[in-house]
Amino acid sequence: MKPRYRLLVLAAVLVGALSASAQTGANVQRSLPTIRVKKGCCACAKRWSYPQTQNPSLRLVEGQKLSYRVLPDASLDAYISVENVSASPVRFGVRIDTSRKEMHHRVNFCSGMACYPSFVLESDEQGQVTLQPGQADHTFKLQFDPQGYLGTSTIGVVIYNIADLSDYVTFDVTFEATTQASVDQPVIAESVVPNPASDHIRIRGTVGSRVEIVDALGRCVRSLVLPSDEAAVSVAELPSGAYRVILRSGDRASSFPLQIVR
Q1: With pLDDT > 70 as the criterion, what percentage of the chain qualifies?
Q2: HSE-up of 165 (CA within 13 Å, CB side)?
Q3: What pLDDT sits at residue 37?
Q4: pLDDT averaged over the chain?
Q5: What is the rounded distance in angstroms from the CA atom of residue 60 to the CA atom of residue 254?
């Protein structure tokens, strides 16, 4: 074989070998398994799946209203109180279920020292509350705004023991946005001043309203009934810290932050 032909044959062999190698590499690459990281389900979106213990530590305070009627251009705060009926302290968290909410309505909730936007469905550490045996919490509320739309929204609520997820109480709260005459209206107090306060505060509200001053742990540390539309209330005996002033009239309530400093 002539030298030039020998070189051409050798080149062809090398090209064929490189092509086969590349093809084999491609086959090997295609045969490797693809590992996909599964995205975890947000805990806030899950339904409560734990079986309930036979004797829950938490229960709703009796006699509370769990259904409301609101004008479509109004809004309403629905306070729901829960109490610790066990013999031990309980620290609880809150989760809400909005799957039965009318799509145009807006609902958010507050608990402990925190209020959450409508896209948050479960309390964090700020919204958790510790209850001593026999103690009730008055900080949890649902804030409902129909945003001008008629319809009914039902909100599922789970209030659960942080230490034992099978220890919980669950209930529904229903809001109906309607143009009918018989509706629930929120109580709006004109003022709670001064804030911050050191010795006294002045509260303006509806005559006969029940006033509760609640500390950071959800404990009611002072309560009274407004004898007139304005009353002076002493807070001199209360330690410095963050509080809330809650005014209740029937099934309706309004809440105001209060800081006591000295």
Answers
A1: 77
A2: 6
A3: 31
A4: 80
A5: 19
What sign results for the dihedral spanned by CA atoms 53, 58, 60, 61?
positive
Provide DSSP, the chain: --HHHHHHHHHHHHHHHHHHHHHHHHHHHHHSPPP-PPPPPPGGGS---SPPPSS-SEEEPTT---EEEE-TT--EEEE--EEE-SSS-EEEEEEEEEEES-TT-EEEEEETTEE--TT--B--GGG-EEE-TT-EE---EEEEE-TT--EEEEEEEEEEETTEEEEEEEEEEEEEE--SS--------SEEESSSBSSEEEEE--TT-EEEEE-TTS-EEEEEE-SSSEEEEE-TTSPSEEEEEEEEETTEEEEEEEEE--
Q: In the numeric block, which tokens belong to residue 198?
A: 């050191």
How would you class 25 by CB atoms within 10 Å of its CB: exposed for 0-12, middle for 13-18, buried for 19 or more?
Answer: exposed
Distant-in-sequence, close-in-space partners of 27: CB < 8 Å, separation ≥ 6: none
Confidence check: pLDDT of 168 > 90? yes
d(CA 215, CA 227): 23
- For 212-245, give one letter per residue: b (16+ CB within 10 A) or e: bbbbebbbeebeeebeeeebebebeebeeeebbb
Structural domains of the chain ordered from first start: 44-177 (2.60.40.10), 191-260 (2.60.40.10)
* pTM of this structure: 0.58
